[in-house]
Amino acid sequence: MSLLSRALPALRLYCIGLAVALHQLLRRLRPGGPPAPVFPTQNGNVAIVTGGAKGIGYHTVKHLARLGMHVIIVEFLHCDLASMKSIRQFVQQFRAKNCPLHVLVNNAGVMLVPERKTEDGFEEHFGLNYLGHFLLTNLLLETLKQSGTRSRNARVITVSSATHYVGRLHLNDLQSRCSYSPHGAYAQSKLALVLFTYRLQHLVTADGSHVTANVVDPGVVNTELYKNVCWATKVVKWMTAWLFFKTPEEGASTSIYAAVSPELEGVGGIYLYNEQRTKSTDVSYDEELQRRLWTESCKMTRICDVGSRDL
Where are the membrane-spanning stretches (predicted)? Predict the structure, then answer.
């Protein structure tokens, strides 16, 4: 792998990160601003949040619980859910309780980890950030369909990031075996989440199900995700995060909005940033690419490919 091919993914990722951080600073300095939204109580509705023990996920769980939701935290990054087998076991246990599911928040993730594999042999960014959520969502989809109603759809919210704008999806090398770059692998996993969300919405719409799927961008947030960056970046982050970065609570706001806002009732297949509908990268709207990624993901997770045809 050439030096240039190693450097380009990192350069793209840091450029988009800098652009978002600057946008956040300008937004913070702008006088006034919209008031914090007030959401309706959730009356014991059930939510599952992956990665809900810390960071953005923790504040998502905290706010949903305050609204009256019963929230189940799933920790993908812990050994109890580190494999596809364990994800299946969790879903079996959840189903055995005959519990409804009104909101699923796919939040957990890793960033810029060195080249390594999950227990199932998948590149870690692709396996944990994307495939785990793909499998979990598909295994819970029937429960979501049964829980949604015409007046109140069940919701799937998936956390991507602005790095998806510089992501490149390599369908012939999703595991980044040919040329590994942690920056490229991370951006690819975030692009895959956007493609997955749009395809999922297409399928549930065609099926007539009362389920919506949306993808959110939390912005540049001061969390533990940056533990794998180089020391120089850590120093810069330590010196500037208070000014340029969102707090984890601020980062959770769009996930919470997508989960409970009445404005999004029945609205799916959109990309949200700062609680606003935003255009994702052009390639994410490629329906053939969405379909091909879905089909390949089904093969990797060994589930039936209902997405290979229009329902």
Answer: none
User: pLDDT tens digits for 58-110?
Assistant: 999 999 999 999 999 998 766 545 689 999 999 999 999 999 999 999 999 99
Which SS3 state, helix, strand or coil, does residue 46 take? strand
Q: Looking up tokens 């075996």, which residue turns up? A: 177
Annotation marks residue 186 as catalytic:
yes
* Phi, psi (degrees; rounded to nearest 5) at 210: -90, 65
Give the Cα separation of 1 and 157 in Å (integer).
Answer: 36
What is the domain partition of the chain in residue ranges?
40-219+248-301
Beta-carbon contacts of 146 under 8 Å, excluding residues fewer than 6 positions away, are: 100
CA dist 31 → 22, 27, 28, 34, 219 (Å): 16, 9, 8, 10, 20
Helices (H), the chain: 3-29, 55-66, 84-96, 124, 132-147, 182-207, 231-244, 248-251, 253-260, 287-301
pLDDT tens, position by position, 48-61: 999 999 999 999 99
Q: Which of 165, 186, 198, 271 is labelled catalytic?
A: 186
Strand 70-74, strand 46-50: pairing: parallel
Residue linked to tokens 């050994």: 79
Looking from the CA of 159 toward its CB, the CA atoms found within 13 Å total: 29
Vertex 140 angle, CA 257 and 212, to 5°: 40
Q: Which fold has domain 40-219+248-301?
A: Rossmann fold (3.40.50)
For 37, what's the count of Cα atoms within 13 Å in the CB-facing half-sphere?
20
DSSP annotation of 221 reads B
Q: Which residues contact 89 (CB under 8 A, 6 or more apart)?
A: none
